[in-house]
Write a structure and sequence with these properties.
With 277 residues, the chain is of the alpha/beta class. It is 45% helix and 16% strand. The protein is built from nine helices and seven strands; from the N terminus they run H-H-H-H-H-E-H-E-E-H-E-H-E-H-E-E.
């Protein structure tokens, strides 16, 4: 940020007052746009948690570049995957219809927005995993995107299966119709479900209980089930460093992507990514 030349009056009191006003203007400038978006959101949105939004265009390109580097894939290919899911009208229609039919429709928005989950989708398309586990599915928005990716992978000859875990028996209601052919929800405590899971995991997504200790326990539970080049996504990595700690302890690489919501008051969460070369 370039420094501006500031002329301060020679009178001490006036000088301090002008400096205070200048600093206040500079500081509040960072909050005016989010406050404006918040005011608008209060009247046009029904959401109370797990807010949905699109990402800024530049932010999506940064995400694509990061995924390309992790997967050793061409940047243009990852960008194409992101455009692919954003243009998926069938998926958007499915999510919108399933939301309207649900008991929680009054707390949801009509417009379907994916946020950082487009990164989950692009990773799944690039990695072609045989098994995906996501802990904590809530409505099942991520479940649908991941299943949509597996569906396209399957059409290209790469079979895969999605497993979501959630303690709420009503969770995952969006995972229905054709998308349910590629995944299912395991109901119960996520750590217990992980301990019982008998298989090899290629892509693991932590998004359940957001306490640091529970997150760490999930990584321990899945550690021996990871395939050689498995990737772990931490949806809580903007709040805790547990995935970083796990990565260091198990000789894995770790990077973090911070999302920038487009025209929204929420500052954004992120994706912690743990992987091996």
């Amino acid at each position: 940020m370039k420094q501006k030349n500031i002329v301060i009056a020679k009178t001490p009191i006036l000088g301090r007052s002008l400096l205070f006003l200048y600093r206040a203007k500079s500081g509040f400038g960072y909050f005016l746009r989010p406050l404006s978006n918040l005011f608008k959101w209060l009247f046009v949105s029904n959401e109370v948690t797990n807010y949905t939004y699109d990402l800024e265009d530049a932010n999506k390109l940064y995400l694509a570049s990061l995924i390309a580097d992790i997967t050793n894939e061409k940047f243009d290919v990852i960008v194409a995957y992101i455009k692919e899911i954003e243009a998926d009208s069938d998926l958007r229609m499915h999510i919108a219809d399933a939301t309207i039919r649900s008991d929680l429709a009054f707390m949801a928005d009509k417009e379907v927005r994916f946020g950082r989950r487009i990164g989950w989708y692009a990773l799944t398309r690039a990695l072609k995993p045989k098994t995906i586990i996501e802990t904590g599915v809530d409505k099942g928005l991520g479940s649908c995107l991941l299943s949509a990716a597996l569906k396209r992978n399957n059409q290209e000859g790469y079979e895969g299966r999605y497993y979501g875990t959630d303690i709420d028996p009503k969770a995952g209601y969006l995972l229905s119709g054709d998308y349910a052919n590629y995944g299912c929800i395991l109901y119960g405590d996520s750590i217990e479900s992980l301990n019982k899971f008998d298989g090899v995991v290629d892509l693991f997504i932590n998004d359940s209980d957001h306490s640091a200790n529970y997150e760490a326990e999930e990584y321990k539970a899945v550690a021996d089930k990871l395939s050689q080049h498995a990737v772990i996504l931490g949806d809580n990595s903007h709040c805790t460093n547990k995935l970083l700690e796990f990565s260091l302890e198990t000789n894995r690489h770790f990077v973090f992507f911070h999302e920038k919501p487009k025209d929204h008051w929420y500052p954004g969460a992120g994706i912690g990514i743990s992987f091996k070369r």
